[in-house]
């Protein structure tokens, strides 16, 4: 298995004959409005362009997988990403709650089920996300993460956009995925608490999990303050060594 970090939550999973594009945000730098307004340094999104090797990587895609996409969550499926999938007739897997929304965009949708199920030549299990709590949480599309298992490959838990809940702690403790891919940017709006994991949550998962952690959702959106350098410092301070990986955009991790 290979995991390539493209940008933010957008990754490419390579396993066997399959190339699975997850949560495609493909818009150019600065083409989407800011998410934080109570600041003197307002910045439009995405903060960075896609990496130089993105066209070559995207040309290999066979399928797409969406964690959530409604209520304005452009950072997991934007207009450019929708158009790209539509023009190439890429089969798109999503939960049933997103299926009609995606069909209206002209996409070839293959709805998943709520329980453990076959997925391509492997298995998939959805894991509910909590994308923020309180008032902010009522406005969010919470979506699902996914546990993916393919023959002769490490198991991979794509957490999706979520804070670290007791349900997710229990899931990781029980299932012990070989790899946990976490949204580590500590995103928050002008009001309310974090809506995805941050530094402390990555550390907490490292204490629960016996496997590897890959951090993404970093340095691409204006409401995500956690930096790669902060995570690298965390890795050094707590002696996580090879257990915590913080890939750059365009970087491929071979597992």
Question: Can you walk me through this structure?
Answer:
There is one protein chain. The chain is of the alpha/beta class and 255 residues long. It has a single domain (2-254), classed as 4-Layer Sandwich (Metallo-beta-lactamase, Chain A), CATH 3.60.15. Helix content is 22%, strand content 24%. The protein is built from 7 helices and 14 strands. The strands form 2 sheets. It has a 7-stranded mixed β-sheet. Strands 7-8-9-10-11-12-13 form a 7-stranded mixed β-sheet, covered by helices on one side. The termini are close together. 44% of the residues are buried.
Identify low-pLDDT runs: none
* CATH-derived architecture: 4-Layer Sandwich
User: Beta-sheet strand percentage?
Assistant: 15-25%
Radius of gyration, whole Å? 17 Å
Q: Treating each run of at least 4 consecutive H or I residues as one helix, how many helices?
A: 7
At the fourth CATH level, what is the homologous superfamily?
Ribonuclease Z/Hydroxyacylglutathione hydrolase-like
Q: How far apart, in Å, are the first and last alpha carbons?
A: 5 Å
Whole-number count of domains: 1
Describe the sheet with the most strands. Answer: 7 strands, mixed
**General shape:** globular
Calculate the mean pLDDT score and round it.
93
Helical percentage: 10-25%
């Amino acid at each position: 298995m290979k995991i390539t970090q493209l940008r933010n939550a957008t990754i490419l999973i390579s396993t066997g004959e399959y190339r699975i594009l997850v949560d495609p945000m493909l818009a150019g730098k600065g083409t989407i409005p800011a998410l934080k307004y109570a600041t003197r340094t307002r910045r439009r999104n995405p903060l960075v362009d896609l990496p130089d090797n993105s066209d070559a990587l995207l040309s290999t895609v066979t399928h797409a997988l969406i964690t959530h996409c409604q209520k304005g969550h452009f950072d997991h499926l934007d207009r450019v990403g929708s158009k790209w999938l539509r023009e190439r007739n890429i089969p798109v897997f999503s939960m049933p709650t997103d299926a009609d929304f995606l069909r209206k965009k002209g996409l070839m949708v293959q709805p998943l089920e709520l329980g453990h199920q076959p997925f391509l030549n492997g298995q998939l299990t959805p894991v509910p996300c909590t994308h923020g709590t309180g008032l902010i949480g009522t406005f969010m599309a919470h979506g699902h993460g996914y546990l993916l298992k393919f023959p002769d490959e490490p198991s991979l838990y794509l957490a999706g956009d979520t804070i670290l809940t007791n349900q997710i702690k229990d899931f990781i403790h029980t299932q012990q995925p070989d790899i946990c891919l976490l949204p580590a940017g500590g995103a928050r709006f002008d009001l309310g608490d974090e809506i995805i994991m941050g530094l402390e949550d990555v550390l907490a998962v490292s204490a629960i999990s016996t496997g590897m952690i890959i951090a993404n959702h970093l340095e691409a959106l204006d409401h995500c303050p956690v930096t790669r350098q902060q995570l690298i410092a965390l890795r050094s301070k707590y002696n996580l060594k090879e257990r915590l990986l913080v890939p750059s955009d365009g970087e491929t991790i071979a597992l």
